[in-house]
Amino acid sequence: MSKKVDTSVNLNGLILKNPIMTASGTFGFGKEYEDFMDISKLGAVVVKGLTLKPKKGNKTPRIAETPSGILNSIGLENPGVEHFIKEELSYLKRKGMTVIANIAGNTIEEYCEMARILNDTECDAIEMNISCPNVKKGGVAFGTDKDVVYKITSEVKNNLDKPLIVKLSPNVTDIKEIAKSVEKGGADCLSLINTLIGMAVDIKTRRPILKNNIGGLSGPAIKPVALRMVWQVSNTVNIPIIGMGGITSIEDVIEFLLVGANAVAIGTGNFINPAINSELVDKLEEYLIDNNISNVNELVGKIEPY
Amino acid sequence: MSKKVDTSVNLNGLILKNPIMTASGTFGFGKEYEDFMDISKLGAVVVKGLTLKPKKGNKTPRIAETPSGILNSIGLENPGVEHFIKEELSYLKRKGMTVIANIAGNTIEEYCEMARILNDTECDAIEMNISCPNVKKGGVAFGTDKDVVYKITSEVKNNLDKPLIVKLSPNVTDIKEIAKSVEKGGADCLSLINTLIGMAVDIKTRRPILKNNIGGLSGPAIKPVALRMVWQVSNTVNIPIIGMGGITSIEDVIEFLLVGANAVAIGTGNFINPAINSELVDKLEEYLIDNNISNVNELVGKIEPY
Amino acid sequence: MKYIENCTVNKNEKIIDDIYRMELKSNKIVKDSKAGQFLEIKVNNLNYPLLRRPISINEINLDENLLVIYYKTVGKGTKILSQVKKGEKLSVVGPLGNGFDTSYEGLNIGIVGGGIGIAPLVELAKSLYQKNNVNIYLGFNDKPYLINRLNELSNIVKVSTVSGSYGYKGFITEVLEKDIKEGNLDLLYACGPKGMLKKIKDIAKEFNIRCQVSLEERMGCGIGACLGCSIEVNGQMKKVCVDGPVFWSNEVNLDE
Amino acid sequence: MKYIENCTVNKNEKIIDDIYRMELKSNKIVKDSKAGQFLEIKVNNLNYPLLRRPISINEINLDENLLVIYYKTVGKGTKILSQVKKGEKLSVVGPLGNGFDTSYEGLNIGIVGGGIGIAPLVELAKSLYQKNNVNIYLGFNDKPYLINRLNELSNIVKVSTVSGSYGYKGFITEVLEKDIKEGNLDLLYACGPKGMLKKIKDIAKEFNIRCQVSLEERMGCGIGACLGCSIEVNGQMKKVCVDGPVFWSNEVNLDE
Ligand SMILES: Cc1cc2nc3c(=O)[nH]c(=O)nc-3n(C[C@H](O)[C@H](O)[C@H](O)COP(=O)(O)OP(=O)(O)OC[C@H]3O[C@@H](n4cnc5c(N)ncnc54)[C@H](O)[C@@H]3O)c2cc1C
Ligand SMILES: Cc1cc2nc3c(=O)[nH]c(=O)nc-3n(C[C@H](O)[C@H](O)[C@H](O)COP(=O)(O)OP(=O)(O)OC[C@H]3O[C@@H](n4cnc5c(N)ncnc54)[C@H](O)[C@@H]3O)c2cc1C
Ligand SMILES: Cc1cc2nc3c(=O)[nH]c(=O)nc-3n(C[C@H](O)[C@H](O)[C@H](O)COP(=O)(O)O)c2cc1C
Ligand SMILES: Cc1cc2nc3c(=O)[nH]c(=O)nc-3n(C[C@H](O)[C@H](O)[C@H](O)COP(=O)(O)O)c2cc1C
Ligand code: FES
Ligand code: FES
């Protein structure tokens, strides 16, 4: 490639060298993929969802396959925020990477405490998951009520100097309303979508496939819902958007940019092709060159609706 | 098949000879499938959504394929309720079929008027679509607010002696709450799910594939969401449920029955295999015989959750 | 009568570039088929790609019970189709659509095709040739195909390529227009990209010639049940899959 | 080191009933593989079925750069796999998992397998045989397979079938228990259905013999990133895909 193209994006102050990120919970803490690619090529790594204390998660089976999708009920298994800071963060930062810590809590105060703890670290931004459908006392209520969403966003923001990304649940009647509350609450960026709530059944045993009965649906199956929500939200708010849901190809990436995502995250796609993230970084550059686009931002929101 | 099994189901007074129905909007008015099967074998035919006056629907393209799913934005093209009664209903009734008229309106009064008109006909029940996402002034608001849902259900029920089935939109934060309002409003039966709202993008033209920009997602992709909602609703209300969303095989039918559906409807599956409905009637009988189940109702709700 | 039939693939070969020819063994569909009708083909037996693909009938071979199709690999479905091997089976629904009205005799007929739209013109020419004087106009981007076969079924075949590699350099509608001005065509049939159809519709209007056009639309069911393919024809909603794909050019709006 | 490799299928044949044997040409994965490790295979290049399928390595053939697998057709993915033809390519990720610990010498070893769980025991026997006295115990429902190959790689192979069609009639764990009581096994390895593993775990405990068991769990990634396969081992969360699939039987809970 001789011609130079600009793939960098600015998420309200958080600058990424390219818009290709990993989706939380699908990329571990990065190391797991090092046999397959140079992870420092990626725009950013969003790490597995962290809680204040270590968590064992749900019982297995935690994964079920569905038509062009998967259900997961991991239940936020993670080593806790302190362990992350000590053991994982510095490793990734030493590689010069942009690292985004994804956090989940049971109370607003827990979210705030994690924000304070992470504020004093090298991590580049925080993605607040208010939508994880798996933890019974947690996510659901936070992510689906616009007033609670406003409150939690503004309080966490008060405890944080770093950029705050809020990740939205698609399991709501009106995603625009929630997005507006997040923006009003002072978030720097939005990230959507998290998983749709679903279920899979084993007719031989007459039991759910997941031990948790229900789980979060991700993968290509949900891409149409994700594209619709990103499009609606990008027409509603003025803060940048990280789009995700079912991305498995460069065409999918372009679709998300066109409907208004400033960056994209790949989740389930990593399981099908563990080198996908770095391949997409290359393919995005090729796409821009082939289509005579000098700056990736020229694509953002460029869909022409009827 | 020598052994006899009982496949009949009772939907709160509406008796079907078997629980295999067609989903509204995917089976025309029945005739279209007569080259492929004896349609009188089916438990019931739910006809294309009807409006008070004829409707031309949206502009094409109205169909987009997505991973294991399709989006549609038909926009309720139909010849109007009077034409249905005159030209289509008697034909189906002469074949001895159970016919369910699916109705959609712009106002509560329109729904009530259609109910009154249909009440004096041979049709066996009415399925009220309060969830069609395609008509801008219509469905959305009705189907997503629990108070409106209560109001419209009870008013329509007041204008109707026939069984009233209410069809729910999955595009809501809490499907259980909506289902409870429908039950309280006096509906005889629930039907779920209608389509999820989605979007598809053509990156070459940088335009949505659908002329309507957004459309309703159906097919195998949405099956996990549909199963979850049927399960949640069947644990919440006491009226029977018609389950649908992505059924393409007998295994899918059994899954819906296990999570609590008393009958099932096949939509998108008709497009892939135009004989699927009658094949499923046979396969259900085989399944019951093979598994030593003498009555199909023994399967309903028999999932054992963890 | 429409059928669902499991057809064995008798041949599946590349013709040029991205254009393939397939022969399907059929006992039922083949017997009821006519020119201008199409098939809905499931390219594999998975739920992905989900929908059947509409493909026109290129030739009906009743002696050998074969349905021939030509298809261009444009996306996932047609790419999978191109990898199917002889002997494998495909689920086919058909015959679908109204087909061309070929109940004419003694006329000077112009048949115009562009790109992959040329595929259905073979069976069309077969049903018109000898009863009529058949002139065929074919437009390609660069590499022509099916010319020899169409030569056998017509009085004359005229060809253009955009690249100039074969025949007239330019659009075939230019050749057509010239012939209409000079000669005397009574009836037109056309199948091809929308831009070409629009131009032919205009020509037909200008010279007051009746013209049948074969349209494409994204389809759900292909059998008239889903209303996915409805277009307005003469102010009324018509389904491309059952009322079409062939319409009179003066009755359809090609501008959207 | 783990790789994504496009492996050409060298052979794909039915062995008995629903059990197939496949040879995959590999240049990278094969070099780093050991007994008890597994592969994640994408059965086609579509988004359906979406996930890769975990399949154990049956044999590592470094002379011919072949990885051999045995698989049973139970669902969509394995059925599609059974239709793949020689010469086609499959995307394979591997080698995955810890594999068996085979750093033992001079022991009386019992290797126990049931059903499709017998597949990985071939490479295991290879790495233990001659350094140890290897006794193999195989349980089948009705039709045995891989017996000849395992005979070449062990001191003795004992077989049982539930149907009684071959060998001892009943469960292989009954044969194993009898041998343990009479003779003298120092170390056990086991792979097979959960019920069998439970029984072997109990036997190992009762007679105080160390035992490695290979487990199965539904997987998302197969490489330790999704935490889909986490189980509690000695009070700590461990991933079947990287910390396993092989664990010491006394450390895992097989009752859930
Ligand atoms: C009546 C009719 C006859 C046709 N005859 C032929 C023929 O003889 N030879 C041939 O090569 N092509 C023909 N086409 C076009 C052919 O159907 C599409 O090229 C094909 O469906 C593309 O499928 P894909 O999976 O490769 O592409 P994708 O773009 O991946 O398909 C995605 C979806 O869009 C639909 N779609 C895409 N392009 C078209 C199109 N042009 N028309 C309708 N649906 C489309 C597909 O069916 C599918 O549902 C015909 C179309 C119609 C409507
Ligand atoms: C480490 C490991 C090694 C294995 N080795 C072998 C082997 O050598 N030979 C063999 O025949 N089988 C083996 N299996 C089981 C094999 O993975 C499953 O039979 C296969 O995934 C079923 O896929 P399917 O599409 O045919 O079935 P489906 O039921 O349609 O699969 C649906 C989903 O469930 C998963 N799944 C279903 N059964 C299992 C299972 N038993 N374990 C894990 N995931 C499952 C599938 O991977 C898929 O994601 C192994 C499993 C594991 C975890
Ligand atoms: C196995 C798995 C684990 C996940 N864990 C988290 C998590 O811890 N925190 C979070 O915000 N999202 C989590 N997600 C959601 C993803 O980050 C992403 O939003 C979703 O999967 C949609 O993207 P995809 O279709 O590309 O996977 C998880 C998804 C999967 C599949
Ligand atoms: C082309 C199409 C048209 C539809 N039209 C209607 C309609 O008029 N009224 C209605 O209540 N539902 C309509 N639906 C929704 C279906 O009845 C059904 O609820 C939905 O498609 C989910 O089932 P499926 O996945 O089996 O298709 C339509 C669906 C499709 C695909
Ligand atoms: S494609 Fe369904 S009506 Fe034409
Ligand atoms: S399968 Fe993903 S961590 Fe084991």
TrEMBL record, chains A, B:
The active site is at residue 132. It comes from the Bacteria. Its cofactor is FMN. Pathway: Pyrimidine metabolism; UMP biosynthesis via de novo pathway. It is an enzyme of class 1 (oxidoreductase). Its EC number is 1.3.-.-. It holds the Pfam family DHO_dh. It catalyses: (S)-dihydroorotate + A = orotate + AH2. Keywords: Cytoplasm, Flavoprotein, FMN, Oxidoreductase, Pyrimidine biosynthesis. Substrate binds at residues 48, 72-76, 129, 194-195. HAMAP family: DHO_dh_type1. Catalyzes the conversion of dihydroorotate to orotate. This is Dihydroorotate dehydrogenase.
UniProtKB/TrEMBL annotation, chains C, D:
InterPro entries: Cbr1-like_FAD-bd_dom, Cyt_c3_hydrogenase_gsu, Dihydroorotate_DH_ele_sf, Dihydroorotate_DH_Fe-S-bd, Dihydroorotate_DHASE_ETsu, FAD-bd_FR_type, FNR_nucleotide-bd, OxRdtase_FAD/NAD-bd. Pathway: Pyrimidine metabolism; UMP biosynthesis via de novo pathway; orotate from (S)-dihydroorotate (NAD(+) route): step 1/1. It comes from the Bacteria. PROSITE patterns: FAD_FR. Binds 1 FAD per subunit. Responsible for channeling the electrons from the oxidation of dihydroorotate from the FMN redox center in the PyrD type B subunit to the ultimate electron acceptor NAD(+). This is Dihydroorotate dehydrogenase B (NAD(+)), electron transfer subunit. The gene is pyrK.
